[in-house]
Design brief:
This protein has seven helices and two strands; from the N terminus they run αααααββαα. The chain is mostly helical. A two-stranded antiparallel sheet has the order 1-2. Helix 1 (2-42) packs antiparallel against helix 6 (140-162), helix 3 (67-73) runs parallel beside helix 6 and helix 5 (88-122) packs antiparallel against helix 6 (140-162). It starts with a helix and ends with a helix.
Length: 181
């Protein structure tokens, strides 16, 4: 169990890096839109392709890396409201079946998004921002789905090894252990 907690700690560090990436994306989006509004109001021109650049580059950079952290924190809707009213044995079964279903869904989404990304790369898919053709980044969704798959895998392993019936991974935090001593 300690090894699983150590591996989850590494996974959590990666999630924090992705969270910083998402936070940087929010800041860049705010700055880019603010500059665009200022340029529009102070002159008769605007930044070219603001909508497209924000839609195709900055929003995915903001949302996709943060999805795993949202999944791990319990912000995303869960079926726990239904399963916690079931008998203990049914909760134990659900605590194994639900992460398996999540893993299957994330693996499928990862597979489809990788195939789409490869197809878009082969077809040299671009979008028009003003008068310039810019490439589309389709490799971020597969990374997000891999991270979510790993998160659900940790939940599944924890539930199998400990008999836990929750759908969130709650490892032993070394800071909390030392605080109680």
């Amino acid at each position: 169990m300690k090894t699983l907690d150590q591996l989850y700690a590494i996974h959590s560090k990666i999630k924090n890096i992705f969270l910083a990436l998402g936070g940087a994306g929010v800041f860049v989006m705010m700055l880019y839109i603010t500059v665009d509004v200022l340029v529009r109001n102070l002159s008769n021109t605007a930044l070219i392709g603001t909508f497209e650049i924000v839609s195709y580059y900055i929003m995915p950079l903001t949302i996709l890396p943060s999805m795993c952290l949202a999944l791990a924190s319990g912000v995303m809707p869960r079926i726990v409201a239904m399963t916690n009213r079931l008998p203990q044995k049914a909760q134990r079964i659900d605590a194994i079946i639900l992460p398996i279903l999540e893993i299957a869904a994330y693996v499928l989404m990862c597979r489809f998004s990788i195939k789409y990304a490869i197809s878009a790369t082969n077809d040299q898919l671009t979008f028009i921002a003003g008068t310039t053709s810019l490439p589309v980044w389709y490799y971020l969704p597969p990374v997000a789905y891999v991270m979510m798959t790993v998160e659900s895998l940790f939940v599944l392993l924890k539930n199998i090894l400990t008999g836990n019936t929750t759908i969130l991974y709650k490892g032993v935090d070394p800071d909390e252990e030392n605080a109680s001593i």
